[in-house]
Amino acid sequence: MIIVMQEDATEIQIQMITEKVKKLGYDIHADRGVNRTVLGIIGDTSQLDMRNLEVEEGVAEVLRVTEPYKLASRAFHHKDTIIRIGSVEIGGEEVVVAAGPCAVENEEQISQIAETVAKAGAKVLRGGAFKPRTSPYTFQGLGEKGLKLLQSAARQNGLLCVSEVMEGGLVGMVSEYVDILQVGARNMQNFPLLKEVGKAKKPVLLKRGLSATIEELLMAAEYVISTGNPNVILCERGIRTFETYTRNTMDISAMPVVKKRSHLPIIADPSHGTGKRDMVAPMARAAVAAGADGLIIEVHNQPEKALSDGSQSLYPNQFAALMEELKMIAWAIGRKIGSVDKPNPTLIA
Amino acid sequence: MIIVMQEDATEIQIQMITEKVKKLGYDIHADRGVNRTVLGIIGDTSQLDMRNLEVEEGVAEVLRVTEPYKLASRAFHHKDTIIRIGSVEIGGEEVVVAAGPCAVENEEQISQIAETVAKAGAKVLRGGAFKPRTSPYTFQGLGEKGLKLLQSAARQNGLLCVSEVMEGGLVGMVSEYVDILQVGARNMQNFPLLKEVGKAKKPVLLKRGLSATIEELLMAAEYVISTGNPNVILCERGIRTFETYTRNTMDISAMPVVKKRSHLPIIADPSHGTGKRDMVAPMARAAVAAGADGLIIEVHNQPEKALSDGSQSLYPNQFAALMEELKMIAWAIGRKIGSVDKPNPTLIA
Amino acid sequence: MIIVMQEDATEIQIQMITEKVKKLGYDIHADRGVNRTVLGIIGDTSQLDMRNLEVEEGVAEVLRVTEPYKLASRAFHHKDTIIRIGSVEIGGEEVVVAAGPCAVENEEQISQIAETVAKAGAKVLRGGAFKPRTSPYTFQGLGEKGLKLLQSAARQNGLLCVSEVMEGGLVGMVSEYVDILQVGARNMQNFPLLKEVGKAKKPVLLKRGLSATIEELLMAAEYVISTGNPNVILCERGIRTFETYTRNTMDISAMPVVKKRSHLPIIADPSHGTGKRDMVAPMARAAVAAGADGLIIEVHNQPEKALSDGSQSLYPNQFAALMEELKMIAWAIGRKIGSVDKPNPTLIA
Amino acid sequence: MIIVMQEDATEIQIQMITEKVKKLGYDIHADRGVNRTVLGIIGDTSQLDMRNLEVEEGVAEVLRVTEPYKLASRAFHHKDTIIRIGSVEIGGEEVVVAAGPCAVENEEQISQIAETVAKAGAKVLRGGAFKPRTSPYTFQGLGEKGLKLLQSAARQNGLLCVSEVMEGGLVGMVSEYVDILQVGARNMQNFPLLKEVGKAKKPVLLKRGLSATIEELLMAAEYVISTGNPNVILCERGIRTFETYTRNTMDISAMPVVKKRSHLPIIADPSHGTGKRDMVAPMARAAVAAGADGLIIEVHNQPEKALSDGSQSLYPNQFAALMEELKMIAWAIGRKIGSVDKPNPTLIA
Predict the structure, then answer these.
(1) Higher model confidence: residue C307 or residue A231?
(2) Contact indicator for D43, D25 with CB cutoff of 8 Å
(3) Of C303, B167, A105, residue with least CA distance to D55
(4) Separation between Cα atoms, residue C146 and residue C127, nearest integer Å
């Protein structure tokens, strides 16, 4: 951490801030320039609130020179983290696709969709059992029954499964059914929940909050890892901006930024990221082209009858066509989707 | 809800969407203009996902003409809600000030601060016992012990007290100590928590999320009210924007907007809204001038030694001077702070 | 335009607003529902300021049902606009790439770069002669001399050229040298300039402002088209958000959104959209995958010595490698770059 | 400027970056810590593009320790700038109010409004003659004729006058009529225009762009001052955020931030900052309470018939009532509006 003093800072002010930093247990080094003095704090400053220094007399600015996260940082862990679940590797050469309905509605629905997405090349079945809804008056999910149906449909089709957990107290129960625990965007900074999934034995899919910076997303991952669970998959799903023609603005640049700052895998959710069916395919292609390690996509056998998010769910045939395009794009950048060695251009819609 | 058809929508498309809406249980009325047809849906559409209609063939746009919240809306409850706790009324003529440290640290600290803020005219003592911290490596609060100290210091100084609850499972325990349950900005859409505080017997101070629209804040209030607790106090505490010279951008216009849309009281938190001590007073004054029903302000007896947020905490004498300015401003707009009938201009710094 | 009355609006209020709208020259139709009355305004409301109606007594909300632009709207012009300049078609099957330095610095520099980018498959040479710089103390461009060098280098390599014009008074002069007139992001709502390029005979590359909505971008295009110039190419180059790890957030979803709302071609500028060299390639790939009609990319023969924006300029070999990846991605979605019929995977880095 | 090297940066990388900086004409000082080396660049780095250093091998981050502006910075000019025009002082003890219609429409309109606002205590008459309109189909202003009417109405009522200039070529003509030249939000980074008003002899009212940071606003002021005109008045008028219940989010915190960073006066425009009449008064009060040096407010004698922005214009009696409230608030914080020594509380509505 670096403290930049004001040009007219007095010697006494420099001494006082030096004393204060030393009392906090850090060494400090003064660099006296022609115009101003710059103080460098030596030691692990990750627990130091820089704003406590900014308000001192004579201080112009306080700058952090190290990231506030360690375990999630590529600086401390150079190699890509690859998360292995059964035969699936997330963060490796393959771009892994999770797909399924917004919410599990009944056995027939989830079974049909599972079969469909497995056939098209998905490796993971998604489906909500506990739904965070902005309105208290809308469908809230089937609960544990939904998890059972999800797990069963996944197993029958050779898929892994992922579902959201919204409360710390339910992490144990949800873990019994799913292969990956999802923490939703609205809970990205629900710290008690982060600690609970940090104690779980299952990998965690951590969604970026609607107004979270990438640094905060990595800090949230740090909570999970520091509690004991290193298997965190990050997920971009759109941020809030002033644009109104889209529900959110999907931050595709999060792919290369996260890859540079962290060793953790990052996937994209173009369904929530756009909120509209006709934009899911272009944004899914964009995410893969930008380097996403995976995608999570809403697919429904009858979107027009879906109990939630039907408007952003793909039809089965749309999903299958998209998968063929994605295979080509992955191949163009030296990756692959599924076991195919070479994409088949004749299958592209 | 209104469905605007495309200019070239066919009669069949209009029929199909009409059928779909009727099947969902609503009446529908077609208004055939020269250029295009507009369909009006009649009935309570608060549970209807408008995006399910937007994706239909021939539809140009779907517009909501009623707000998605009812119990929090002024349209359904014209008179201002006034929340009475002991002798304090929130939402009435008086602008109520809550003040205290970011976190309860020890008995001496909270007692001293309680005495200080009571003397200056505060009516509520704030103090965190469970702290949501972005870094897992920083001070997380004293827990229940902190709540005991907070309550005791408040009682000794004739103050009410407020503290944050972060988990549904702790609502009962926290309710035993505090007069007002605070739901933090990061938990504004933690729906299980909203339902728990909705069952509590204590009023709820609900903070606006960093990227929440005012509509979403009112929807979150709707969760609490619809579960059974009508005593919700809204709180503006800064939103995310591109500006970097301030930590957040405090949305002062939330005061008049909420007053127009809802009957619930709204207060402002200039400490979190700005993040810097020297901006707390101007923004506190601005909030009151814009019509805030109250303020919540961080005050510490020794900000430079505070375990958290010291940089945004006022010194006792700063708080006392601010209160005198605020009394004048409240008076200028026909309200009051404390029992004084007329402000004393000679006390203004 | 639709006027939604408040639930408790009186008959007199409804009459008064009806009279007001009629006086403005529109027909109006009242739809009296169980709970509230909705008034539909019939006629061309593009010149009507809806806020003048919002403030009337008894009005709950005013909703626009048609876009405020016409000439730029797909609703009024279903077929894609294809802009033909020489043998190049922008908006057609081919994804057209413009490349070159941020600023023209001298003859050797621009000649070398022109040769390099032409060889790699670019069709247009970019290069600034008048630079809008946020600091008054930095390099401001070579002016007309720069345009001469740009044109000459382009011609020698069979390329078109594009350069920015910052003032209405210079449109004539700049038009003599360039094939495409660029209007920069900071001038997207410089209306006198929009009118001047509207009178020019050359196509216009119109960049989206940093905080402009897509609707405003299309309104700016409307200015140009309505003045007489239908050849407008839109360009996404990043918007302002709260994220700080990137300079701007490139809104990749602008590609499918513009394609749906407008018939005009849209291209992407990943150099300004990201501000950092190592993010240019992933975002260029993402834009093409999402449906961009073209790209404009900064390439410099010696980026480390560039007088401006060197940090976001690609090295020649990086640009060549990127072009090969882009050819594959274009092919994956049924488009092409350059005259190649089929990409050559062995050329991909 | 400070260059933070990566933890694993090699000695050769440190040498190479050191050489590069020296070649650019700066001294450099290396601070070798336990974990990493930090390089300090000595000299005036305002012309140095830090991104050119960020992309070098081994560099983790580049941090600016001085502001990129000088002439606008309080660090280089400690005392508040007070701009004197006739008997009016902007930036001093008095809070100066400018008021008038969005656009000058005809002689009767501007004369009536001038008389009204003068009587209520305004010192400056505002009125547009050249209007920047987002739609090419709406009223664009009376041009020079409007300026004549504006000047005449101002003179007859003892007021100064201000109007917007949109093109460099018109600065001379507009200067003949107005006392203050306004540069609109959309032109905040129209650099040719900034240079022209920098050469003018009249003070400049510079509005913050919709997505401009405060730093960029101060950089724009730097353009004007460095060209020769030190009399710049800054103006906050709302920024773009995700909130949709207001047209823009008025950044009230810009008042204290600008006061800290710069010596220039800052005023607020609550009419454009909110876009709705019923929010103008609360936000005007908030701005004054937060320390604004002035206000610019739209007032119209018949807002419902205004040719532009009628919905955000105050009625004459609303403006008069607001002025009485503002006098009280100014007094509460040790300032004044008009020549009154003490506000008269009985006048407050």
Answers:
(1) A231
(2) yes
(3) C303
(4) 8
pTM of model > 0.95: no
Name the burial class of residue B26, with classes exposed (0-12), middle (13-18) and buried (19+) by CB atoms within 10 angstroms of its CB.
middle
* pLDDT given at position C342: 57
Between CA D136 and CA D149 the distance in angstroms is 24
Alpha helices in D139-276 (DSSP H): 144-156, 171-175, 191-199, 214-227, 254-261, 270-274
pLDDT at residue C46 tops 80: no
Chain length of chain D? 349
> pLDDT tens across C147-172, in order?
999 999 999 999 999 999 999 999 99
What is the rounded distance in angstroms from the CA atom of residue B176 to the CA atom of residue B201? 10
Interface test with B, best of C7, C31, C240 (most B CBs within 10 A): C31
Instruction: Name D94's Cβ contacts closer than 8 Å, sequence gap at least 6.
Output: D335, D336, D337, D338
ipTM, interface predicted TM-score of the complex? 0.88
User: CA-CA distances (angstroms) from residue B77 to B80, B86, B232, C4, D96?
Assistant: 8, 24, 14, 19, 40
Tokens of A199: 């104690």
Distant-in-sequence, close-in-space partners of C341: CB < 8 Å, separation ≥ 6: none
Which one of A6, A38, A240 has the shortest CB-CB distance to D40? A38
pLDDT band at C339 (very low <50, low <70, confident <90, very high): low
pLDDT(B340) > 70: no
In this structure, what DSSP letter does residue C154 have?
H
pLDDT, chain C, mean: 89
In the numeric block, which tokens belong to residue B317?
A: 């004498």
Say which residues have a Cβ less than 8 Å from residue D63's Cβ, sequence separation at least 6. Answer: A2, A63, A65, D1, D2, D4
Low-confidence ranges of chain A (pLDDT < 70): 33-34, 46-47, 65-66, 134, 138, 339-349
A42 → closest Cβ in D6, D33, D240? D33
Residue C220 phi, psi (nearest 5)? -65, -40
The residues with which A128 forms a beta bridge, in sequence order, are: A103
pLDDT(C348) > 50: no
- CA-closest candidate to residue A255, choices A264, A267, A263: A267
Residue numbers in C near B61 (CB within 8 A): 65
Radius of gyration for chain B, computed over Cα atoms and rounded to the nearest angstrom: 23
Q: Which two tokens stand for residue C94?
A: 């081919």
Question: Per-residue DSSP letters for C320-331?
Answer: HHHHHHHHHHHH
Helices assigned H by DSSP within B24-79: 51-54
What domains appear along chain C, each with residue ranges and CATH number?
2-63 (3.30.70.1140), 74-347 (3.20.20.70)
Query: Which of C32, C62, C242, C243 is the best substitution to test chain B (most B C-beta atoms within 10 A)?
Result: C242
User: Using the beta-carbon criterion (under 8 Å), do B242 and D211 form an inter-chain contact?
Assistant: yes
Contacts of residue B334, Cβ cutoff 8 Å, sequence gap at least 6? D348
Using DSSP bridges, classify how beta strands B2-5 and B59-63 pair: parallel, antiparallel or unpaired: antiparallel
Please give the single-letter amino acid code of residue B318: Q
